[in-house]
Amino acid sequence: MTETPPSFADRPPAGDVLADMLRAVRLTGAIFLKASFTEPFGVLSPQRYDPTIPMAHLRHISVFHYVATGGCNIETAGGQRRELVAGDLVLLPFAAEHKLWRGDAEFTPASSIVHQDAKEGVWSFTHGGGGTETRFVCGFIESAEMMFAPMFRSLPEMLVDRADDEAVGSGIAKTIGELLANVDSLTPGAEVILGRMMELLFVELLRRHAARLPPGSKGLLAALNDPLVGRALHLLQADSSRRWTTDELAREVGASRTVLGERFNSVLGKPPIEYLTNWRIQLAADRLRNAKDPIARIAIDSGYESEAAFNRAFKRVTGLTPGRWREGGGDSPPLMPIQFGRPP
């Protein structure tokens, strides 16, 4: 048997590469809702939110729905339908318009039935015809940087997992139990705890989604399961300011330039150096927004020879100049297509 090259033998676990990706994306702005819907009911959650409701100020949000009791149907903007039952945890990465219903009822806009709970930090929905009750707890994750993160753009419209799955008994189920307890009690400091819990759920759902992808899948999460591409991603992310060439990267992972390029294009739909550019810009975007370093310093640290070269790369990826992004222009998502389930 041919000996495994050392570069593959010490390949980091896919979870480590995913953790690197998520550390580069700042998750903030979680807001929590409790919903009590009674059959028959129909609720329409819009893509754009009215300024009077809690998540209106968020730049980009991903939506969680946890079905605590009961069950209903859900339909996404792209037409995916799913019957939800108690214990289901739903992630809608793009917060696009979606419908929730049970029985025969007209759809009511969510913005017309939400109200501030007596406890600060929690909003509530109460709606329906008085029959069998379905209870939800909902959360929102915000990240402007996530809009152009390759990992995010390759996600499907909807991910559904089971909070009571034995395989995640000490993970998702425990977090969900603590989340429900904190939403009900909302003691001082609970909002911070709830925010952290939503981040943990987000990470865990992505990990599980990546692990379940079948062979031949495309996109960044699928790339984590590819020995060659996963190792290359780890190297690029660990030393993103290095002036990598495809030849150098191929030598590091123990493959030819041709094989490496073919694997990247097959799984990610782009060559390694283009991926590196997107990764650098993702890191720089967070730093521009949350640090006071001069743009020229960020450009050099990101691996660019000049501020002008960095400006061109940043605008090509995000649609905005670094200065405009730092001023808050990123509050409006960059104009770029999002392809569900396919590499960008």
Q: Layout of helices and strands, plus pairs?
A:
Layout: H1 6-9, H2 14-23, E1 32-38, E2 41-45, E3 61-69, E4 71-75, E5 81-85, E6 88-92, E7 98-102, E8 108-109, E9 114-116, E10 122-128, E11 133-142, H3 150-153, E12 159-162, H4 172-185, H5 190-212, H6 220-223, H7 227-238, H8 246-253, H9 257-267, H10 272-290, H11 295-301, H12 307-318, H13 322-326
Structural overview:
It is built from 13 helices and 12 strands. 39% of the residues lie in helices and 19% in strands. The N terminus and C terminus are likely disordered. It is elongated. The strands form 2 sheets. A 7-stranded mixed beta sheet has the order 9-10-1-11-3-6-12. It has a 5-stranded mixed beta sheet with strand order 5-4-7-2-8, with no helix packed on it. The chain is α+β, with helices and mostly antiparallel strands and 344 residues long. The chain has 2 domains: 172 residues, Jelly Rolls (Sandwich), CATH 2.60.120.280; 112 residues, Arc Repressor Mutant, subunit A, CATH 1.10.10.
